[in-house]
């Protein structure tokens, strides 16, 4: 059983930056695909980014602004967010799983989830 604990988040002005972290425990970390999802009020949870040992994937609206990284020696994954926009406001979740490539953008591909952390972009 993998446990995921998130940190970071908060309130930032438009154009600002934030870094989210997710620490994993309870199992081997490197075999898992790690993902970030978000859910805005009144909307469904959506894919943000994912990382394997060989590559990354991003939703179009964050490509070039967000960077997902993993540190297998520390069992940690991070999401560096820059040039933040009000539309980025959401509850952000990290996730771990072993989805095939075609399911890496789907929350159904992930088995373990962090507690969620709020990111608010507002002036």
Order of helices and strands: EEEEEEEEEEE
Count of helices? 0
Biggest β-sheet strands, sense, barrel = 7 strands, mixed
Class by helix and strand content?
mainly beta
Gap between N and C termini: 40 Å
Q: Show unreliable segments.
A: none
Query: What is the β-strand count?
Result: 11
Described by the principal axes of the CA atoms, the overall outline is globular
Classify the oligomer.
single chain
Q: Roughly what fraction of the amino acids lie in strands?
A: over 45%
Radius of gyration: 13 Å
Binned, the helix content reads: under 10%
Q: Give the rounded overall mean pLDDT.
A: 95
Keywords for this structure?
mainly beta, globular, seven-stranded mixed sheet, 0% helix, four-stranded antiparallel sheet, 123 residues
SSE blueprint:
Elements: E1 3-8, E2 10-12, E3 18-25, E4 33-39, E5 46-51, E6 56-58, E7 66-71, E8 76-81, E9 90-97, E10 112-113, E11 117-121
Parallel strand pairs: 2-11
Antiparallel strand pairs: 1-3, 3-8, 4-5, 4-9, 5-6, 7-8, 9-10, 9-11
């Amino acid at each position: 059983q993998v446990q995921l604990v998130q940190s970071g988040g908060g309130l930032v002005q438009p154009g600002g930056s934030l870094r989210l972290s997710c620490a994993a425990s309870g199992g081997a970390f490197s075999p898992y695909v790690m993902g970030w999802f978000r859910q805005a009020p009144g909307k469904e949870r959506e894919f943000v980014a994912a990382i394997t040992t060989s590559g990354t994937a991003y939703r179009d609206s964050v490509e070039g602004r967000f960077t997902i990284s993993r540190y297998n020696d520390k069992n940690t994954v991070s999401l560096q967010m820059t040039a933040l926009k009000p539309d980025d406001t959401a509850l952000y979740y990290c996730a771990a799983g072993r989805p095939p490539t075609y399911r890496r953008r789907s929350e159904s591909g992930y088995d373990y989830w962090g507690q969620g952390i709020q990111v608010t972009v507002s002036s």
